[in-house]
Design brief:
With 513 residues, the chain is α+β, with helices and mostly antiparallel strands. The chain has three domains: 231 residues, Thrombin, subunit H (Beta Barrel); 94 residues, Roll (Pdz3 Domain), CATH 2.30.42; 98 residues, Pdz3 Domain. 17% of the residues lie in helices and 35% in strands. The chain contains eleven helices and 30 strands. It has a seven-stranded antiparallel β-sheet with strand order 7-6-3-4-5-9-8. Strands 24, 25, 26, 27, 28, 29 and 30 form a seven-stranded antiparallel β-sheet that branches. Strands 10-11-12-15-14-13 form a six-stranded antiparallel β-barrel. The longest helix has 15 residues. The chain is elongated and about 75 Å long. It starts with 8 loop residues before the first helix and ends in a 9-residue tail after the last strand.
Length: 513
């Protein structure tokens, strides 16, 4: 431990205390006196202090703000029709008196979760999937042993955030922290109602930050930037509080990864950062819905191989796979193959960080993008549009087509064919997509390891367009170097997109054409 051996330590202590009070402010959401009163403390956590022997003071501070949420919804259940109903022998004796099990019936489905009181007058943050589709939402508060019927103010499936309101006053509201200041290794507590056993507190650390790519809620286009923690999170914890060592809310618990049949905790839990939740909450309370900015592009991260192929100094940036038609990106002149490296002057680390930046801006906002095109920097201004309400679901089936005219190209273990009207109709390939259809990929090939699939359409090879199988074969035969850069079109279920990736070109064990 370090000690100050100067008489001015008291003075500095007073200054630090005053600064802390400045940062600890009383924040009014709507700024017009009509919104809830929210406490926000953005001071960084002290990381050079001796570990605490008890977290009881933190629990006493934060736990009264965490509530239990009980929901019910009506679901239709269609029973299997009894084979006796179709048996002439039974019909002869019973006629139509046999129950018609083929009719749809309804039943009540109940579930539980958790929530966090964020204002004394009854606003509550929770997870969208806790209340999604519910006919009735009840909130139970342990502190005063009362139960309330809650109104759903609004939900945002893309971030898995929902806001509820109960008719109550003088509630114990939690203080919101600043999730942007979290660091891996920070101590956190998860508070909620796991398995309905009652309010429970578990401890862990921040295991990782910026986790994404899970689509826990089943909503395509989800906005994900999760805090990962090993604090035990179980079914029923969803919507509950993840708090820091000061008892401030820094996340809304939302999901777990488990390999066990019990669906219990395996030490990998996720929470929505409070800064995202707060951003959504403000908009839900003020307007009843959330709108996210939209560019209209499909992105991927820049791997080491792609950075080399595109002449980039490092792997920072987001590679544009595809630009959707009639979107803000298309109107601004953004093209497939561009690498976006800055958003409004802020460096872009990867595809997800860019999507987060875009989503946090309102539709209609003009933003500046710096990108790299053909090894040259370029700056464009884009007016963001409205994010589509519901994107098509991703699927996993990849259909191909066999043909006598198919050819094996220089890509290891890949067979391609020309696109014809039958193939286009079968695979729902738009006329605007030109290239060579992949009809087979050897399972042990370099191409399979790189991710090429049967049913993909190869559009470009080493940045040069191909329009048929012959051109694809020639382009591959002419390819130099250890890797081949491909641009492909792929359909997954009802969703389609372009994608760039590299294939190892060092192994040439396919037969000659």
């Amino acid at each position: 431990m370090k000690f100050f051996n100067k008489p001015s330590v008291g003075f500095f202590g007073a200054i630090l205390g005053a600064l802390a009070m400045v940062f600890l402010f009383h924040f009014t959401l709507l700024g017009k006196g009509t919104g809830p009163s929210i406490n926000v403390d953005t001071t960084a956590i002290a990381r050079d202090v001796k570990p605490a022997t008890s977290f009881a003071p933190i629990v006493k501070k934060a736990a009264p703000s965490v509530v239990n949420i009980y929901t019910s919804r009506t679901v239709k259940v269609r029973q299997m029709r009894s084979p006796l109903q179709d048996d002439p022998f039974f019909r002869q004796f019973f006629g139509d008196q046999l129950p018609d099990d083929g009719h749809a019936r309804t039943r009540k489905e109940r579930s539980l979760g958790s929530g966090v009181i964020v204002s004394p007058d009854g606003y509550i943050l929770t997870a969208n999937h806790v209340v999604e589709g519910a006919d009735e939402v009840k909130v139970a508060i342990d502190e005063n042993k009362k139960e309330f019927t809650a109104k759903v103010i609004g939900t945002d499936p893309q971030t898995d955030v929902a806001v509820l309101k109960i008719d109550a006053t003088d509630l114990s509201a939690i203080t919101l922290g600043d999730s942007d200041q979290l660091e891996v290794g920070d101590v956190v507590l998860a508070i909620g109602n796991p398995f309905g056993v009652g309010q429970t507190v578990t401890m862990g650390i921040v295991s990782a930050l910026g986790r994404n790519g899970f689509d826990f809620g089943g909503h395509a286009g989800a906005i994900e930037n999760f805090i990962q923690t090993d604090a035990a999170i179980n079914p029923g914890n969803s919507g509950g509080a993840l708090v820091d060592a000061e008892g401030r809310l820094i996340g809304i618990n939302t999901a777990i990864i488990t390999g066990g049949e019990s669906r219990g905790n395996d030490g990998i839990g996720f929470a929505v950062p409070v800064n995202i939740a707060r951003h959504v909450m403000e908009r839900l309370i003020s307007g009843g819905k959330v709108t996210h900015g939209y560019l209209g592009i499909n992105l991927q991260d820049v791997s080491g191989d792609l950075a080399k192929q595109f002449g980039l100094p490092d792997q920072n940036g987001a590679l544009v796979d595809d630009v959707l038609t009639n979107t803000p990106a298309e109107k601004a002149g953004i093209k497939s193959g561009d690498v976006i490296v800055e958003f409004n002057g802020k460096s872009v680390a990867d595809a997800n960080s860019l999507l987060l930046e875009v989503s946090e801006n309102e539709p209609g906002t003009s933003v500046t993008l710096k990108l790299i095109r053909n090894n040259s920097p370029k700056t464009v201004t884009v007016k963001l549009g409205d994010r589509p309400g519901e994107l098509a679901e991703n699927g996993s089936d990849q259909n191909g087509s066999d043909s006598d005219n198919s050819k094996t190209d220089a890509l290891d273990g890949v067979t391609v064919d020309d696109l014809n009207s039958d193939i286009r109709q079968e695979l729902k390939i738009p006329d605007r997509v030109q290239g060579a259809i992949v009809t087979d990929v050897a399972a042990d090939s370099n191409s399979a390891e790189a991710g090429l699939l049967k049913g993909d359409v190869i559009q470009e090879i080493n940045r040069k367009p191909v329009s048929n199988a012959d051109e694809a074969v020639k382009a591959c035969n002419a390819a130099k170097g250890d890797q081949i850069l491909l641009k492909i079109w792929r359909r997954s279920g009802n969703f389609s997109s372009n994608r760039f990736f590299t294939v190892d070109n060092t192994k040439k064990d396919t037969k000659e054409k």
